[in-house]
Specification:
By secondary structure, the protein is mostly helical. Helices cover 69% and strands 2% of the residues. A three-stranded antiparallel beta sheet has the order 1-3-2. A hairpin with a 7-residue loop joins strand 2 and strand 3. Helix 3 runs parallel beside helix 6, helix 14 runs antiparallel to helix 15 and helix 23 runs antiparallel to helix 24.
């Protein structure tokens, strides 16, 4: 809200009054009905200027069609996103009614303009988007030749344009406008289906894929979070993928509680839209179990992973790569539960399968080698553990380079084995390299970085 005098000046700047009867007091009286809300004043003034409305017409529209219209006065839109207090929420709801009034009765937007608004309402609201990126976004719906419509939307205040000196323009939408667009232009999950699939693909991170960069992929997370906010309650296959991939990002950054929330939602959706034995259900069960394991919820993790194992064996043969993934994940949980012999048996089978399917230099093989080495370490089979981890570390260095987080993980595990067999100087070198890696990738306060530091005294 603006002070009354500033509100009047803003209105007059955009829509200079015509005629001596339009006094500052008359304008102030009108704007008081708009709560002196800066955005709303700008919209009303631009609507007046664009549509050629007289001041009297605007007064009549607001007073007879909204302020004193019983039906509209009783119709309160609950937003829940624009204020903590009930009075503030009610005020925001009325402002949205005003914007809707302008939207329906003044602007007369064409179809392309409406389509642009619908698509932009799906984007993160706090981050402006450049014209070229906006074109790519709109291309998902085959919306082209946007220059004229975009200019018109900016002129009328539906989209904000920002342009620093010497920079190309960027565009964004005010949250209040986005809410109205979503409510009244049918911006629903079906409309967003293709875009949701695209965003799910953009945020998919596979830690064993050398071409995947966690930090580059994480730049797209805000797109997924916006869709999550809008369509959290939707039970559709594409949202299961989106939630699972969002949870995967959080997991890889060590935010396990947030990861669990997303992955629980992903599993719920998958169980709602697929058969019980569907491969997607098994994958979601396994992925959620991994997070539960990180949170110390080992019994729940084991139960989920065992169910996933049964499901995956319904869909694939014993030597299929998907089976090896579940075997490896279940073995990790068994190790944490102290069921070392069962874990070793599963991992030996998984490693054999991975070697057969991928060859000795594949990242999947390094994961199985590392997991099996950890079990051998727990069983006191240190020499075998060291050999496996050395092989896995060399493979990861070759596939990912020395600065990848997976390399730090292998270095830390190998250092732990070296400490047990009294090769402490080598362990110190590995721990220092792992620490520098994690410091660079995650910073000093991250759980991964702190955990590596705990090993330093043991290597002295």
């Amino acid at each position: 809200a603006l002070p009354a005098a500033e509100a009047v000046q803003l209105f007059k700047k955009i829509a200079p009054p015509q005629g001596p009867e339009v006094t500052d007091q008359a304008i102030e009286d009108l704007l008081s009905k708009l709560y002196f809300h800066a955005l709303l004043i700008e919209l009303v003034a631009k609507a007046v200027a664009s549509a050629g409305l007289g001041f009297g017409e605007l007064q009549e529209m607001i007073e007879t069609q909204f302020i004193y219209h019983d039906t509209l006065r009783e119709e309160i839109i609950s937003t829940g996103r624009h204020g903590d207090s009930l009075p503030d929420q009610a005020k925001r709801a009325n402002i949205e009614d005003y914007i809707r009034l302008i939207f329906n009765q003044v602007h007369g937007l064409n179809d392309k303009s409406k389509d642009i608004l619908r698509c932009m309402a799906l984007l993160p609201l706090a981050t402006p988007i450049g014209r070229e990126d906006l074109k790519k976004h709109l291309a998902i719906w085959n919306i082209e030749d946007i220059a004229h419509a975009l200019t018109m939307l900016v002129e009328r205040g539906w989209i904000d344009k920002e342009q620093a000196a010497g920079q190309k323009p960027k565009y964004k939408m005010h949250p209040l406008i986005a809410d109205v667009v979503i409510q009244h232009l049918e911006v629903n999950a079906a409309f967003a289906e293709a875009y949701t699939k695209r965003v799910a693909y953009l945020i998919y991170y596979d830690r064993i894929n050398p071409e995947h960069n966690l930090f580059e992929i994480n730049k797209f997370k805000a797109l997924a979070e916006r869709l999550s906010d809008l369509f959290w309650g939707e039970n559709r296959a594409e949202f299961s993928d989106l939630m699972d991939n969002l949870g995967n990002l959080e997991e890889n950054f060590g935010f396990y509680h947030k990861a669990a929330v997303y992955k629980e939602r992903a599993l719920y959706i998958a169980e709602s839209v697929f058969d019980q034995n569907h491969a997607t259900v098994a994958a979601c069960q396994s992925n959620l179990a991994n997070v539960y394991s990180e949170l110390g919820r080992y019994d729940e993790a084991a139960e989920l992973m065992e169910t996933a194992m049964k499901n995956v064996l319904v869909n694939f043969t014993q030597d299929h790569p998907n089976v090896a993934v579940i075997q490896s994940n279940l073995a990790v949980v068994y190790r944490l539960l102290g069921r070392y012999d069962e874990a070793a048996e599963l991992l030996e089978a998984a490693l054999k399968s991975d070697l057969k399917n991928f060859g000795k230099d594949h990242p999947n093989v390094a994961v199985s080698q590392s997991n099996l080495a950890n079990v051998y370490w727990s069983l006191g089979r240190y020499a075998e553990a060291a050999e496996l981890l050395e092989t896995a570390l060399n493979s990861d260095l070759k596939n990912f380079g020395k600065d990848h987080p997976s390399v730090a993980n292998r270095q830390g595990n190998l250092a732990a084995v070296y400490i047990e067999i009294d090769r402490k100087p080598e362990a110190r070198v590995l721990l220092q390299a792992a620490y520098q890696n994690l410091l660079k990738n995650f910073g000093p306060a991250h759980p991964h970085t702190i955990n590596i530091q705990r090993w330093f005294p043991l290597a002295e």
